[in-house]
Amino acid sequence: MSFTGHSTSSGWKLDRATSAVDETYEKETMVSDRASAPAGYEAELERLNRETVTLTKGMQAAIAVARKAQGASAKGNQSELTASIAAVRDQLADLYQRASELVARADFDIRSWMESGEYARELIELAEASNLRVIESDGKLLCYPSVLQLMPAEQAIMIDRKKVRTLRPSEVVRALQSNS
C-alpha cells in the first residue's frame, strides 16, 4: 500500500501485512457485491459479520504498524518512524472508509421487514429447517410451548411475555429449540 517501492525491510513487511488484509476485504466484498439483494435478514447479518471480521483484522494490522512506529521512536530510527506513521495514517483512512460503508449497510430496515411479513416467513423457514414446527395464528407465531409476537415498532420480539431484542432468526430459533 503506502510502502510500495520502499526499500527498508520493515517497510516491505508492512506492505505485505496490509496487502493481505486488503485482498481478504476485496474478495469478501466481491462475494457480497455479487449477490443481488439479500436473501433475508439472516443472510445480510452473515455478510455484515464477515465484513466486521475483516474490519477487525484491518484494525489489528494498523495496531501492529503503530507498534512498529513506537519501536522506531524508542530506538530513534527516523526513517522507519516516518514510514510507519504514514502507513498507520493510510490504514486508518482506509478503515474509516470501510467502517462508513459498513454503517450504511448495517442500517437494515428491520421494522419494514417485520411489518411486511418477510421476517416471519424467514423465521418460519429457518425453524422448519431445524425441525421446529411454527404456526402463524392471530398475528402471533406459535412454536410449542413458546408464543412469539413480533413488535416491529420496537424492533423486538416478545417470546413467552419476555421482550427480546435479539432478532437474528438463527438466534431466535436457538432460543425456541432450548424452550422445546
What's the structural blueprint in terms of helices and strands?
Layout: H1 9-34, H2 41-75, H3 78-106, H4 110-115, H5 118-129, E1 135-137, E2 140-143, E3 146-151, E4 156-159, E5 162-164, H6 169-179
Structure description:
This protein has 180 residues and is α+β, with helices and mostly antiparallel strands. The protein folds into 2 domains: 9-108; 112-179. The protein has 6 helices and 5 strands; from the N terminus they run αααααβββββα. The chain has helices spanning 9-34, 41-75, 78-106, 110-115, 118-129, 169-179; strands spanning 135-137, 140-143, 146-151, 156-159, 162-164. A 5-stranded antiparallel sheet has the order 1-2-3-4-5, with no helix packed on it. Strand 1 (135-137) and strand 2 form a beta hairpin. Helix 1 packs antiparallel against helix 2 and helix 1 packs parallel to helix 3. The chain is elongated. Residues 1-18 and 27-38 have low confidence and may be disordered.
List keywords for this structure.
single chain, 180 residues, alpha+beta, 2 domains, five-stranded antiparallel beta sheet, 6 helices, 5 strands, elongated, disordered N terminus
Show unreliable segments: 1-18, 27-38
Let me know the number of strands.
5
Main sheet overview: 5 strands, antiparallel
Which structural class matches the secondary elements?
alpha+beta
The multimeric state of the shown protein is single chain
